[in-house]
């Protein structure tokens, strides 16, 4: 797209917005003009970005995003300290917390092992995980059901089982409200495999 | 959506992003996590917003967005100073400039007359328009083909014609590459009305 006709600060704003995922140059242009018309929203957004960059850090124990280190979940006395859930990203913690079902603590890997992208255990928070295993009785794998997620689950379970820790994985199957007809074969096969007595 | 599980600066960032048009809370969450993972992109976006807010102003002659006042188009000697094109928004100027077909100057109304939304000529740049008519021979209306756009075109033409200025309107008809089958009746009627000798 040709930004030649825009004044430079506007062209810079459009180009900054178009670096966001899922936002192309047309949408970026629309957003930029909206921000120019709504200076209050624009300034508060810029401040929110600065503020988040300055104040959000990774918890030194679980690597989740937090304002205080260690994070409220790692320091909470109400959490079961013998149960640990391993997830890929901080947003996965938020998704699990919304269910209010899980009473243990979390460990955020910040990715999965992916040899194609050059990501090995060293690029993830695996060593931090190995340093916090004292008192842990069960580790629940809640990685995404992708090839890399599966491989990472298997890799970690091979590290954890010999120490005598019970390693489990969240169930794969049909999503609630989903439709058998439209589910893929692998999901249905997993759902059959994981069938339970009624 | 429940932001309780997010640290406050992150919740603020998500809420700031979700105030952008077309961005719901889910997308805002995705963008916020992306920005936290890409601090360089985030900081440069925040700077671009601040910079645009500080340095972009409206040209005192044509009301287009500009860094220098008056804007480069209003001061350019190469532009036909007897020809003026009236548009709704600064982005319409950019769209017209991209064609490289128009050699006159612009006037940005920053909206259209809309009694329902309480927008009359006083809320637009109509008085600035009336102050710059010296030497203008033709005014081209390039407002959007909506009810409000049409009404504003008619209102302005009634002001301009008595002064002896030729008032024209850009053609309405089938978009190039468009399909007669899928065009609405009003567009086809306008295309018939505006037919020209081959």
Biggest sheet character of chain A: 4 strands, parallel
Q: Spans of chain A with pLDDT under 50 lasting ≥5 residues?
A: none
**Do you know the CATH topology of the largest domain in chain A?**
Dna Topoisomerase Vi A Subunit, Chain: A, domain 2
Mean pLDDT of chain A: 91
Strand content of chain A: 5-15%
Helix content of chain A: 40-55%
Oligomeric composition of the shown chains: homodimer
Shape of chain A: globular
The CATH architecture of the largest domain in chain A comes to 3-Layer(aba) Sandwich
The class by helix and strand makeup of chain A works out as alpha/beta
Secondary-structure element series of chain A: HHHEEHEHEHEHEH
* Domain unit count of chain A: 2
Measured distance between first and last alpha carbons of chain A? 59 Å
The CATH C-level class name of the largest domain in chain A: Alpha Beta
- The count of strands of chain A amounts to 6
Largest interface: A-B, 52 and 52 residues
Strand line-up of the largest beta sheet of chain A: 4-3-5-6
Question: What is the radius of gyration of chain A?
Answer: 22 Å
Number of helical stretches of at least 4 residues of chain A? 8
């Amino acid at each position: 797209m040709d930004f030649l006709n825009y004044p430079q600060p506007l062209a810079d704003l459009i180009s900054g917005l178009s670096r966001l995922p899922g936002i192309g140059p047309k949408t970026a242009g629309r957003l930029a003009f909206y921000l120019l018309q709504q200076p209050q929203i624009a300034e508060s957004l810029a401040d929110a970005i600065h503020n988040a960059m300055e104040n959000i850090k990774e918890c030194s124990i679980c690597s989740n995003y937090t304002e205080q280190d260690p994070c409220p979940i790692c320091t909470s006395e109400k959490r079961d300290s013998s149960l640990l859930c391993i997830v890929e990203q901080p947003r996965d913690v938020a998704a699990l917390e919304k269910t209010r079902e899980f009473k243990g603590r979390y460990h955020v890997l910040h990715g999965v092992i992916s040899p194609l992208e050059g990501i090995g255990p060293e690029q993830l928070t695996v060593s931090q995980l190995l340093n916090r295993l004292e008192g842990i009785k069960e580790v629940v794998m809640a990685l995404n059901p992708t090839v890399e997620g599966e491989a990472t689950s298997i890799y970690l379970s091979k590290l954890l089982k010999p120490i005598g820790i019970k390693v489990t994985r969240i169930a794969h199957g049909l999503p609630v409200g989903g439709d058998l007809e439209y589910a893929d074969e692998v999901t249905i096969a997993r759902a059959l495999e994981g069938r339970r007595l009624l």
